[in-house]
Amino acid sequence: MKKKLISILAIFALILILVIYNNNKIIYTKQFTYLPKYNDVKLENFEKPRKEQIGTATYKIKDSKSQNVMNDYFKKLKKMS
Question: Which domain of life is it from (predicted)?
């Protein structure tokens, strides 16, 4: 009985740790591997960097207000540091 209880608690703890880890995981954009990806963002245009220049990308976010997007993205960037 005691072994069963310990096994169940261990499995529960493992599941809890995995859920917490996945919620804190930051996903990065494919084009710029150093920038976190924002929810429901769609790539509109991407130009690869030429020689010593930087690349540019245009993303589109539907059904969001710009202030909410900026606040949420700032929180993601802050979480990275």
Answer: Bacteria
